[in-house]
Design goal:
By secondary structure, this protein is of the alpha/beta class. It has 14 helices and 23 strands. The strands form 6 sheets. It has an 8-stranded mixed sheet, with helices on both faces. It has a 7-stranded parallel sheet with strand order 3-2-1-4-5-6-9, with helices on both faces. Strand 7 and strand 8 form a beta hairpin. Helix 1 packs parallel to helix 2, helix 1 packs across helix 9 and helix 10 crosses helix 14. Bound molecules: cytidine-5'-monophosphate. Cytidine-5'-monophosphate binds next to helix 12 and strand 18. The site of cytidine-5'-monophosphate (C5P) has 14 residues, from helix 12 and strand 18.
């Protein structure tokens, strides 16, 4: 299919440039010849030596090189090819292509070309979603520039979303389609299916984990919350496109990618972090906040002095859920709490819904027999103003996904 086809491959400066090395290998295996132009940015990610070794040709990178101009100038470089492939195509290079800038060898060859051009965009999700990039992509599409990807997934920058360069096989498939004459204007990147992101543009806040209330510099009051449920909810919100802040008490869990995480110890710190994060469209209070803290934290480690155990005076902690419910015009648009109960689960949760001014309460049975605390499964009853919805036993991940879908439906219904 690709034998004797001549590909001019332009490698721009993106972390995905490493995938381009594999693309060259696959193209050559299929009989294509590959000539590479490496931009200055591209050379930060792959070396001319790797490209030259894989392509079996020298690498072109200098617009004003006398020897290159003699051997093969930018006009010949683009004319000599059957197809120009830009991989990775960065936001910057796409902008230059859309504007018609020609300030280096890559952009000059692209402007001088009368051959089909296929781009494989690669950038951070926010750059991909930026109005400027959207406009550039539309301009290029209107001019017949073909595109493969990008796909959605975890990004090198730690965020999640669309912007990952298509995989080498996908780019190869798009190249073959060009030569078959049936390439669509955009070949979707199927590495991770383009996802429905109904919470795009929404802001979310999640509390998770236990709190630690200091008794003295070495001791504290805590509980058995693992943070698994709250962290899963934060991930699920971000997966559906919400800009998510996770306020987490001390847990053994890694920070989820693509989420802004604020680490706190005590209930007072958790409350302050939540208040700083307002306004939000939705808040989910999944933290197991300690109800009490010591009236006074001892400045030094408390000692056994033979006088018997010390009396610990406790005072009540602020109720974060209720405080958010009373935040006036900063009240989250949708406020959701949990009710961990060991008996009369729904009955107690209904009281909690009222008392805390929440919109929904997810009641779960945490009696020791259920293994919910620290475990991976949860049995939920969702209580709202209309009644009770009983969910089957499911994993905490599934609870998170179902809850977040329910949140998205709620916003659609209100829109
Ligand atoms: O009163 P109870 O602790 O059972 O309430 C549970 C709900 O209230 C959970 O959503 C929990 O995150 C929230 N909560 C809170 N601040 C507290 C106590 C509970 O946000 N101090």
């Amino acid at each position: 299919m690709l034998s004797n086809k001549r590909i001019l491959l332009i490698v721009a400066g993106g972390i995905a440039a490493y995938k381009t090395l594999e693309l060259i290998r696959r193209l050559r295996e299929r009989g294509a010849s590959v000539r590479c132009i490496l931009t200055r940015g591209g050379a930060q990610f792959v070396t001319p030596l790797s490209l030259a070794a894989l392509s079996g040709d020298r690498v072109y990178d200098d617009l004003f090189s006398l020897t290159d101009e003699a051997a093969m100038g930018h006009i010949e470089l683009s004319r000599d090819a059957d197809l120009l492939v830009v991989a990775p195509a960065t936001a910057d290079l796409l902008a230059k292509m859309a504007t018609g800038l020609a300030d280096d060898l890559a952009t000059t060859a692209l402007l001088a070309s009368d051959k089909p051009v296929l781009v494989a965009p690669s950038m951070n999700v926010r750059m991909w979603e930026h109005a400027a990039t959207r406009a550039n992509i539309e301009t290029l599409a209107a001019r017949g520039v073909l595109r493969v990807g990008p796909g959605a997934g975890d990004m090198a920058c730690g965020e999640f979303g669309e912007g990952r360069m298509a995989e080498p096989d996908e780019i190869l498939g798009a190249i073959e389609a060009v030569f078959r004459g049936d390439a669509p204007a955009v070949t979707p990147s199927g590495g991770a299916p383009a996802r429905n992101r109904p919470l795009e543009g929404r802001k979310a806040l999640v509390t998770s984990g236990p709190t630690h209330e200091a008794i003295d510099p070495v001791r504290y009051i805590a509980n058995r919350s693992s943070g698994k449920q709250g962290h899963a909810i934060a991930r699920a919100l971000a997966d559906l496109g919400a800009r998510t802040t996770l306020v987490s008490g001390p847990t053994a869990l890694a920070d989820p990618a693509g989420i802004s995480v604020i680490h706190v110890e005590s209930a007072a710190e958790m409350l302050a972090a939540c208040q700083q994060s307002l306004p939000v469209d939705v808040a989910v209070c999944a933290a197991a906040v300690s109800d009490w803290r010591t009236a006074e934290e001892a400045g030094q480690k408390m000692k056994k002095d033979g006088g018997g155990p010390p009396a610990l005076a406790l005072i009540e902690n602020p109720d974060i859920l209720r405080t958010l419910g009373e935040a006036g015009n900063l009240r989250p648009g949708l406020l959701i709490g949990f009710a961990a109960e060991t008996e009369k689960i729904v009955e107690h949760a209904k009281v909690k819904l009222e008392r805390k001014g929440a919109d929904w309460i997810l009641a779960n049975d945490v009696s020791p027999a259920t293994g919910t605390f620290g475990g991976d499964a949860n049995v939920i009853h969702l209580i709202d103003g209309d009644g009770v919805e009983d969910w089957p036993r499911m994993s905490k991940e599934e609870v998170a996904r179902r809850l977040v879908e329910r949140i998205a439906e709620n916003f659609v219904a209100k829109a």
